[in-house]
Automatic annotation (TrEMBL):
Pfam families recorded: ABC2_membrane
Family statement drawn from the similarity comment of this UniProt entry: Belongs to the ABC-2 integral membrane protein family.
Organism of provenance: Amycolatopsis samaneae
The keyword Chloroplast appears for this protein: no
Superkingdom to which the source organism belongs: Bacteria
Protein name from the UniProt record: Transport permease protein
Length: 247
């Protein structure tokens, strides 16, 4: 446990020393929330969103989801693949500290960053913009947990397959941007063609976003969304364990 704590502290310092990572993780979600939240009609009820304000029904959940997806699909797999590329994982395999501890430390750093920024988004949204707190906190927490696990399982699979950090970044982006388009980020799910609305509820990013939208509005998360997130989590972790290489 002491070795894991020290390694996690080192990974946290490296994460914070990289100016791009904190700015990306903190800046993009908060910028989305504040820029769209300051638009004139964002806090007015809109029939297109079931009588809820777009800020609560779409923008705040979207900020949280994009944060989780950036950490899971780009930053985390790129860091792990870079360690493989530079031989760090191989050297650890010959030391008393197993490489799995580095993987665990990286996961912990990213998960702590996700929790802190989610709390910051909710807090800033509430204090600065008057965003209502999630109406179904239990469902919101469940959606956050399942969404995080499902997205990080995809990121772990990317880390397992990518030979280099640059390749991991490319594969992660190739997964990230189509899921933005099909998951209801670029175009809200309600505005997608009917045959794509089902796709938005089963892809990990879309399932997370639309489940958070429902629970933020006080509704129960969709069963299809919860099942999709759970299935992606199980399949992604199983495939990552099958194909992951330390060298």
């Amino acid at each position: 446990m002491a070795a894991l704590t020290k390694m996690t502290a080192v990974e946290a310092k490296l994460f914070l020393r990289d100016p791009g990572a904190p700015i990306t993780v903190l800046g993009i979600p908060l910028a989305l929330l504040l820029v769209f939240g300051l638009m004139p009609d964002s806090r007015n009820p809109d029939p297109k969103f079931g009588g809820h304000a777009p800020l609560t029904s779409l923008i705040a959940p979207m900020s949280v989801t994009i944060l989780l997806a950036m950490l899971a699909l780009t930053l985390f797999p790129t860091a792990i693949a870079t360690y493989r590329e530079k031989g760090v994982l191989k050297r650890l395999s010959a030391s008393p500290v197993p490489p799995t501890r580095l993987l665990t430390a990286q996961l912990l750093v990213n998960l702590v960053a996700a929790v802190l920024v989610v709390l910051l988004i909710v807090g800033v949204g509430r204090l600065a913009l008057g965003v209502a707190l999630p109406g179904n906190p239990g469902g919101f927490a469940l959606s956050i947990v399942l969404g995080t696990v499902s997205l990080f399982s995809v990121g772990l699979l990317v880390a397992a397959l990518a030979p280099t950090g640059r390749a991991a970044g490319g594969i992660g982006a190739a997964a990230f941007f189509p899921m933005l388009a099909l998951g209801g980020v670029w175009v809200p799910k309600e505005a997608l063609p009917s045959f794509l609305q089902g796709v938005a509820d089963v892809l990990p990013l879309g399932a997370t976003l639309n489940s958070l939208r429902e629970t933020w509005n006080g509704n129960a998360p969709g069963v299809v969304q919860l099942v999709a997130m759970a299935v992606f989590a199980v399949v992604g972790i199983a495939l990552a364990a099958r194909f992951f290489r330390w060298e």
